[in-house]
Each structure stands twice: as structure tokens, then as C-alpha cells.
Amino acid sequence: MTQFSSPAQADLTAGGGVAPARTLRLKDGRAVVLRVVESGDASAVQQFVRSLSDRSRRNRFFSMVRELSTDQLHRVTRSRPPGELVLVGEAAEGVGSCIVAMAQYAACEPSEVEFAVVVDDAWQRQGLGMQLIGVLAEYAARAGFGAYTGCVLTDNWPMLALLDRLDCELVAADDPCALRVIKRLDTHTLPV
Q1: Rounded distance, CA 182 to CA 151, Å?
Q2: Is residue 171 part of a domain?
Q3: How far apart are CA 85 and CA 113, in angstroms?
Q4: Contacts by 104-112 with C-beta closer than 8 Å and gap 24+?
Q5: pLDDT at res. 4
Q6: What is the tens place of the pLDDT at every residue in 134-185?
């Protein structure tokens, strides 16, 4: 079974809760700080979604949304481990920071979580998506979930290539324009 891992092995799940942020290093040397979303992040999350290309928004939300509704924004700016986890990746920009990625999962079955990941266009193809999926999988396995599932559009070639490298199973979905992703999580081989 393929191990999900990231270069930064700091634990997001210290003591059953969610620990402080961890820094992820990208192929080009840039750093992204990964942390759990907070309700105060609503405007930054909305700005992140607005800044995505039409293609990236379609690949993530399966429609041409321009921004999140108030209800959607509320749902993605909360995190309730172990059943729900939403992470944001931030990069330094001038004197502040901006969100450049989001990753989340939510329990959909007693033993499964459904995941979603989106990376800002300027930060794609640097290994960030792979690391985000790895952190989510690690957290889900530690929480006792046995599988990681999701849907991907059939024309989302970058994500399909990434999922192939992770040995994910792809099966037909109810929507003919999407594939269902399944990855079994091995809770016995997690890093200590």
C-alpha cells in the first residue's frame, strides 16, 4: 500500500486535538504554512476562491462559481475534528500572508471521509497538492477512518495524474463527467 507522506512530519493531531501549523516546502523552495482554518478566515477564504482561475474553480466545485455563498463560506471556515477537517495553506506576501491552498475532508460514512483539495494556479505543479492530500490522509487514518474517497472530473488531468501516483482506485461515478476516487488508509503503518 502506498504511504501518504509529506516532507514535514510535524503532527497536526497532537493529543487528539489539532496542533499548531506545519511548514511545507515546495519543489521550487517556497514555503507554505499549513494550519487549521478559523472562522475569522472567511474573507481570506472568499478572496482565495475569487482569485482562482475559472478552470480551478470548476475542478474544485464542479461548477463555475465565482465566490462561495454565505452558507458555503460558513461550512468551509469551520473544522470539527475528527469528523471534519479544513486546512488552509498560507504563503508570506509582503508584510502579511495570503491563502494559496485549501484541503478538507468530511466523514461521509462511518469508516470513510470524502476529501477535496484546491491550489492557487500560481502554486500548482510544485508538489503542494500531493502534500495536502498526504496530510489529510494521515489525519483521517489517525482518526480511525479506513478509506479516503472523493470525486474528480474526467478532464481534470493534473489531479488524475496525481491520484495515479498515489495508487488510488478510480471507478465510475453517478455523474458521467466524474470519476470516484477510493484510497484505503492503512492505520497500522502511520509514522509514530
Answers
A1: 9
A2: no
A3: 10
A4: 104/76, 104/136, 105/136, 105/139, 105/140, 105/148, 107/82, 107/83, 107/145, 108/149, 111/144, 111/145, 111/146, 111/147, 112/145, 112/146, 112/147, 112/148, 112/149
A5: 38
A6: 998 888 998 899 998 999 999 999 999 999 998 899 999 899 999 999 999 9
CA distance 9 to 24: 9
Are the C-beta atoms of 13 and 139 separated by less than 8 Å? Answer: yes
Question: Residue 25 pairs with which residues in a beta bridge?
Answer: 31
Rounded to whole angstroms, how far apart are CA atoms 34 and 73?
A: 19
CB atoms within 10 A of CB 61: 15
* Structural domain for 25, as ranges: 14-106+116-145
- CATH code for the domain in which residue 131 is found: 3.40.630.30
Give this prediction's pTM: 0.83
DSSP secondary structure string for all residues of 24-81 = EE-TTS-EEEEEE--GGGHHHHHHHHHHS-HHHHHHHHSS--SS--HHHHHHHT---T
For residues 103 and 135, give the distance between their C-alpha atoms in angstroms, rounded to a whole number.
9
Please indicate, yes or no, if residue 70 is contained in any of the structural domains.
yes
